[in-house]
Amino acid sequence: MLETLFAFVSAHAWAQWLFVAFLFLPPMVIVLVTGQRGLASLATVLGWWALVLMLALAMV
């Protein structure tokens, strides 16, 4: 399933922007809303990426 997703993202420029936005915008919004600073914000971003990785592995 991931192969078809990545093939679609590779074929369309707008999908590439959306994919990158999905990886970076949600944790940054969470950091801004909660007012985190320093390493706490890094932990939020890494936690988001870990969640996305676990979901991707579950789809394989």
Report on this structure.
This protein is an all-alpha fold and 60 residues long. It has one domain (1-59). The protein is built from 3 helices and no strands. The chain has helices spanning 2-11, 13-34, 39-59. The N and C termini lie close together (7 Å). The chain crosses the membrane at residues 14-33, 40-59.
List keywords for this structure.
membrane, transmembrane, transmembrane helix, single chain, mainly alpha, 60 residues
Outline of the structure:
The protein has 60 residues and is mainly α.
Helices, strands, pairings?
Layout: H1 2-11, H2 13-34, H3 39-59
Helix pairs in contact: 1-2, 2-3
Keywords: Membrane, Transmembrane, Transmembrane helix
Transmembrane segments: 14-33, 40-59
Major β-sheet annotation: none
Helix/strand order: HHH
Q: Write down how many β-strands occur, each being a DSSP E stretch of 2 or more residues.
A: 0
What percent of residues adopt helix (DSSP H or I)?
over 70%
The total domain count is: 1
Radius of gyration: 14 Å
Mean pLDDT reading: 89
Low-confidence stretches: none
**Helix segment count?**
3
Strand content: under 5%
Any idea what the shape is?
flat
Q: In terms of structural class, how would the helical and strand content be classed?
A: mainly alpha
> What is the CA–CA distance across the termini?
7 Å
Transmembrane segments: 14-33, 40-59
Keywords: Membrane, Transmembrane, Transmembrane helix
